[in-house]
Amino acid sequence: MIAGDMSWLEKAHPIYYTARKAPWGGDPSGPTLENPWMPAIQIHLAEVIMNEGCFYITTPIYYVNDVPHIGHAYTTCAADILARYFRLRGQRVLFLTGTDEHGQKIVKAAREAGLTPQELVDRVVVRFQELWKIMDISHDDFIRTTEERHIRTVQALFHNLSERGLVYKGEYEGWYCVPCETFWPENQLDERKVCPDCGRSLEKLKEDSYFFALSKFEKPLLEFFSSQPDFVMPESRYNEIMSFIQGGLKDQSISRVGLNWGVPVPGDPSHTFYVWFDALINYLSGVDYVDREEKFSDFWPSVVHLVGKDILRFHSVLWPGMLVGAGIQPPQRVFAHGWWTIEGDKMSKSKGNVVDPYQVIDTYGADRFRYFMMREVTFGLDGDYSERALIERCNADLSDNFGNMVHRTLKMLDKYRGGKISRPVSYSDGEWESLLEEVIGKFEFSMNRFAFAQALEQVWRLAHAGNRYIDKKAPWKLAKLPDKQEELDTVLYRLLDCSRLLTLFVFPFIPRAAGKLWEMLGMEKLLEEHRIPEDLVWGKIQMFKPREAQPLFPRILDDEDR
Ligand code: MSP
Fold first, then answer.
1. What pTM was estimated for this model as a whole?
2. 57 CA distance to ligand 1 centroid (A)?
């Protein structure tokens, strides 16, 4: 394929501009991040498109010059939720995360630590891998850019681009920020020559370099963006990138001389690849682009990248440019999330306010940490982290609403029915049925748009309804009345069934608690073997014999309660 030829586009993204009604029949308007219930036509556009039931989700690969912080945990957690959600939907999922181990930043950190770069990366990578374990991250693969399979892929892509005449050798002069690994063009800097991102001094560099002819892709990329209004999400970011491209694209320097900690340029080993050129290609290494045609052709068409807003441009301009140049279709979607501030402040080492995920998990558990990050802030917007906010959020939602409803149910079942109950003969109930239908519709819609907070809001409507139902029906009163025993059975069964549905919905978010609850509910099949939406129907607990009820989320006492 050559630049300008857009035939891959139609193949990759079959026309799906068909207007469709919202699943719950509404016609809400005014799509905003806070209110994502958009007009029907856009609903379809925002759906994740599966290729043969395959879904490929990635996180950025993290620099290993330092240990993980909440920002790393955030993206990885979001990707995990999507992976678990689509697996529950019966899709074949490939979830890739990993580490970015080359470049000047690593060399510098290694020097400061008195280690070789290899020693440093081997040490720090473990901190990431262990964190994913204790956070219950279910990635299928972990890629390190120092691995042979990746190095081969980088070189293959370069070869591919060279063959198509999209690479040339020239001289690069620019201002470089070592900590950010970014070159800044003169016109984006003021006289202080500091990095517009991190504020640190830039170094002026002039050297031989290979260039990728990104400027040739201005028009194809604009066409691609116009045809894919949900390529970059949220919408505000899409507009931002679109106007960046409209401002004109420059060719991109893709190699360095004098830095041997990187992937060597084939045929010219005095050059190593620029760390961003190297890093982006990890997404292709993860589907064995070079060796396994089948894995690539199954998963690549439905690849979705989750990234932080600071690295969106690399992912939505340079990366699709490189791919289109190499004749590979661009990703299906790049979603940029916001940044966490810490108690209102920018997180930084010098301020000493970096949130250590290990510590949070140690104190509050992985589920609470995961839940807080996903529920507190609309995915895509910035958010503020504080321990108080975490405690309040988890107490209100997980303890007082969800945990309380489930715990009361199991306790009552034990007390009034010795832990056993069977499906009532007459069970259908229009109110419960329409509530569930609406919750499913809005939940799935939100999950397709990665609107995690809104998806959870929907789920909690069921827990609220359960709690209200307990209060209204007062099973403790029914238990005392001989002619109300059938009604008591129905109430308890409804509540159990509601607990089962809640467990399915929350499993992607709080997998550990969901697993425990599943056992307490006495469900025979493993939670992972259930399917949504098929199992999201009333009446799927047949005979019931639960384990002893344990509180799932005991309230956390904060300073005011003590
Ligand atoms: N190595 C590159 C990514 C290459 S992907 C081909 C990189 N690594 S990083 O370790 O510096 O950052 C990884 C991610 O952490 C980015 O998506 C960034 O947005 C995110 N975060 C860093 N600080 C953050 C917050 N304070 N809040 C939320 N996310 C933040 O960039």
1. 0.90
2. 16
